Amino acid sequence: MTTLSIIKADTGGFVGHSSVHPDMLAAASEALREAIGDGLLIDGHASSCGDDISLIMTHEHGPDAEPVHSFAWHLFGQTTTIAKRLGLYGAGQDLLSDAFSGNLRGMGPGYAELEFTERPSEPVICFLADKTEPGAWNLPLYKMFADPFNTAGLVIDSKMHAGFSFEVYDLYEEKRIVFDAPAQLYDLLMYIGAPARYVVHSVHSKTLGEQAAATSTQRLSLIAGKYVGKDDPVMIVRAQSGLPAVGEVLEPFAFPYSVAGCMRGSHHAPIMPVSIAQAHPARFDGPPRIVALGFQIKDGKLVGPRDLFDDPSFDRARAQANEMMDYLRRHGPFEPHRLALEDLEYTTMRQLEERLADRWEAMAPVAVRQ
Ligand code: 13P
Ligand code: 13P
Ligand code: MG
Ligand code: MG
Ligand code: MG
Ligand code: MG
């Protein structure tokens, strides 16, 4: 069995929250090369979206493996040291714990991991996002694996016709449920249509009995108890041969749907599919970006990446995202650009309530008419 792990963290932004400094990425690539040499990893590729570094790694240790998580943790320690030396913004931002113990759960870095027996040809797509939260994967996963208007294979491929199951986490109460698609589509949508709380964690093929997708489902602010930046999630999707074709996996991103994140993690904004060269959110710390790195996995080796959104057929999505950004920005501090009060990552409301407590005057209650 091969495990594909993406482990990611923001360990400092260059400049502000817009990008990763090349020295940090070089250090990550060098550490991956050493880990391959030491036999810990089969292969590895360091990449980034915005100010988050992603380590894309193949190995045989399975998900949640101590040696792999520990390696990533210490690597992020090294990139933090570089960030501090260069005075980069928010050095070590996503490292919430002082010491590593066992695995990365609850420690700040995000991770998506998927273990599988390699098929004769194994195309996978690694999605990396910045300036948004893990629920941002709900809509595209629904489209890829449950919407025949997106994925033709659901109707015309006999290996897909039985559908897929969606594992959904409740991030507030730490519980999980599995929904069967298409039989329980409407139940599924009731939950995942609320992506701040309910997040698709994995998707499985009913016919193949194989896991097809894995997402990072941490919620940093719930772990830290305060705003420490958005999670900036990652996702792995396997493609072809009874799973959605590469083009069916990418198709949802032709629509720049609205996500929570952007400036101060507190605004709705469109998600913009971009090439690696354009994955540096600057305008209003946005619009939120997503990149798609395609690999063929052969004997555990990562053949790639192909920069899949480096394609003019996503130009319209990018143009539409810019139009939507103009439209939303003109709302300034008003909803629905700004998030609802309970979802704001930054707020002055508690101080205001204290300071203005005695200026609010009670009004006579409205009489209820019988
Ligand atoms: P090919 O016939 O080129 O292999 O394409 C099959 C497919 O997956 C198209 O989506
Ligand atoms: P990051 O989570 O990408 O660091 O973003 C933080 C932020 O507040 C951007 O405005
Ligand atoms: Mg940051
Ligand atoms: Mg980020
Ligand atoms: Mg972040
Ligand atoms: Mg072909």
From TrEMBL:
Mg(2+) 2 binds at D51, D52, D130, D232. Mg(2+) 4 binds at D231. Pathway: Carbohydrate biosynthesis; gluconeogenesis. The keyword Cell cycle does not apply. The keyword Transferase does not apply. Beta-D-fructose 1,6-bisphosphate binds at H17, Y89, G102, N103, K131, Q240, S241, R264, D285, Y346. Mg(2+) 3 binds at K230, D231, D232. It holds the Pfam family FBPase_3. Dihydroxyacetone phosphate binds at H17, K131, R264, D285. Keywords: Carbohydrate metabolism, Gluconeogenesis, Hydrolase, Lyase, Magnesium, Metal-binding, Schiff base. Catalyzes two subsequent steps in gluconeogenesis: the aldol condensation of dihydroxyacetone phosphate (DHAP) and glyceraldehyde-3-phosphate (GA3P) to fructose-1,6-bisphosphate (FBP), and the dephosphorylation of FBP to fructose-6-phosphate (F6P). NCBIfam families: FBP_aldo_phos. This is Fructose-1,6-bisphosphate aldolase/phosphatase. It comes from Amycolatopsis alkalitolerans. The lineage of its organism: Bacteria, Bacillati, Actinomycetota, Actinomycetes, Pseudonocardiales. The gene is fbp.
